[in-house]
Amino acid sequence: MKSLFTLIIIAFGFSAFAQSTGEITINTSPEIKKFVAKRIAHNKAQNRIDGYRIQIYYGSENGAISARNKFIGLFPNTATYIDYESPDWKVKVGNFKTKLEADKAREEILLVFDGAFVLEEKVSLK
Predict the structure, then answer these.
(1) Contact (Cβ atoms closer than 8 angstroms) between residue 79 and residue 93
(2) Which distant-in-sequence residues (6+ apart) come within 8 Å of 116 by Cβ?
(3) Phi and psi at residue 28, in whole multiples of 5°?
(4) Which residues face 84 on adjacent strands?
(5) What are the strands, taking DSSP E only, across 1-126?
(6) How far is CA 97 from CA 20, 38, 52, 83, 112, in A?
(7) DSSP tag of 110
(8) Which three-class secondary structure string do you get for 69-90?
(9) CB 60 within 8 A of CB 18
(10) Helix (H) or strand (E) holding 112
(11) Check: CATH 3.30.70.1070 for 48-123?
(12) How confident is the model over 7-59, as pLDDT tens digits?
């Protein structure tokens, strides 16, 4: 009886040890892997927060391209965006987390782009 009890204890000990150091293998179909990859990419693209941008231009397409190029030349490390809302084009710059950051940048931008103003919108902070 003692030897049977000892064998049971040893068997439980080995199974507990095997569980703590074992590996789990999950077999999935290629379709599931593709779906998971798409979902991860979608979530990364949606990684946006409420923040602020500065609009520096509103008007024609040629004017928007010109304003964007001028801005990039003066502020190469600041993100620029061109949006189209029929019939006009908008140039927005920056990804600011706080209004204070956006207002500080706006003061510098106003020296070149009069009429620049701060907008609240979804921004991506990388």
Answers:
(1) yes
(2) 54, 55, 56, 106, 109, 110
(3) -130, 160
(4) 89
(5) 49-59, 80-85, 88-96, 117-123
(6) 44, 28, 6, 20, 23
(7) T
(8) HHHHHHCCCCCEEEEEECCEEE
(9) no
(10) none
(11) yes
(12) 566 666 655 555 556 677 778 778 777 777 777 776 666 667 899 999 999 99
Q: Is the dihedral of CA 42, 45, 50, 56 positive or negative?
A: negative
Round to whole Å and give the CA distance between 12 and 50: 54
Structure tokens at 2: 């003692």
The residues, ordered by sequence, that sit 6+ positions from 65 with a Cβ below 8 Å of its Cβ are 82
pLDDT digits (tens, 9 = 90+) for 73-95: 999 999 999 999 999 999 999 99
